[in-house]
Amino acid sequence: DALPLEVKDLHVEFRTRNGVANAVNGVSFDVKAGETRAILGESGCGKSVTAQAIMGILDTPPGYVTGGQILYRGVDLLTLPEAERRKVRANRIAMIFQDALSALNPVFTVGFQLSEQFRKHRGMSRKDAKVRATELLDLVKIPAAKQRVNDYPHQFSGGMRQRVMIAMALALDPEVLIADEPTTALDVTVQAQIMSLLAELQRERNMALVLITHDMGVVADVADRISVMYAGRVIEEAGVEAIYANPAHPYTKGLLESIPRLDVKGQELSAIKGLPPVLTNIPPGCAFNPRCRYAQDVCRVDPAPPLYQVSASRTSACHFWKEVKGDE
Ligand code: SF4
Ligand code: MG
Question: Which residue's alpha carbon is at the smallest distance from atom 6 of ligand 1?
């Protein structure tokens, strides 16, 4: 059976005033039903752009998919006729964003916005749609759903608003849910609540979840597999335990070292030095080389390192992955 989502060799460009920005340079990953695939990286690494390409919302600034495939159940969305493509994206793949306030319409009640989906896509009556809307608010554990369905987005706290957005995303029973930094704007306690709600709903509905984040702490408990992105490429891909136990790429290692550890007092945060490259000007060879403490001459010349097979289920785009990973 074809997987709910497979992305193959995706390329996305932005035409900017400073030249072509290669935002996504050959990204591949898949996600099974009931599985969580985390896409991890600093901002500007291409993870959100990848999600936007999947959802077909790459329009500001002018971004173009210039190559690759986005397969839903084996069917390439990029070659599907527009009407069918829109149907798949509306019904089968849903997305939640970091900022619920800008994703929800401020002038309509949340009940109205939820109801609209059922009226538009399921042909429900106003009354039935409102009942379903209330059930959804219940599902995402918003207290007093019967009353709150009549409230406007600004009347909800940040965490509750995020629950409303999750409800919106789940309305049409998607098979694939893409969550782009779903908890980044929230405080730590609320973050944990939202993540556990997402994990629970995903299990119950056997959804394929793509979790996009810059925060390695967030993915540890919920992800099955991780794709680490840097400068528009996947630079390491592995199961979550393997990555945490023994990263095979210096960038992943750096990300891990920058997670604050509660058990170490007075520790110094070793965030990775320097900044990710500007995407109109990616350095030759390994894009990470200016920041890499393992870099050698071979890292500074093209082509970029390929994804080396570290083990049967694991890859790293580092020439020196053996040294980086060490012995297990
Ligand atoms: Fe560092 Fe070279 Fe590996 Fe790139 S290929 S991560 S520069 S050691
Ligand atoms: Mg982003």
Answer: 318
Question: ipTM higher than 0.85?
Answer: yes
Cα of 251 from ligand 1 centre, angstroms? 8
- Ligand closest to the CA atom of residue 286: 1
Instruction: Summarize pLDDT for 69-102 with one digit per residue, the tens.
Output: 999 999 999 999 989 999 999 899 999 988 888 8
Query: Residue 268 above 60 pLDDT?
Result: no
Alpha-carbon separation of residue 104 from 14, 217, 274 (angstroms): 27, 27, 36
Could you tell me the end-to-end alpha-carbon distance of the chain, in angstroms, rounded to an integer? 35
Sketch the domain layout of the chain as residue ranges.
Answer: 5-92+174-259+270-325
Annotation: CATH topology of 5-92+174-259+270-325: Rossmann fold (3.40.50)
Among candidates 258, 283, 261, which has minimal Cα distance to 269? 258
Whole-number Å distance, alpha carbon 51 to ligand 2 midpoint, is 9
Q: Which atom of ligand 1 is nearest to the CA of 296?
A: 2
Residue 257, pLDDT score: 84
Q: Is the omega angle on the peptide bond into residue 303 within 30 degrees of 0, that is, cis?
A: yes
Chain centroid to Cα 278, Å, comes to 21
d(CA 126, CA 162): 24
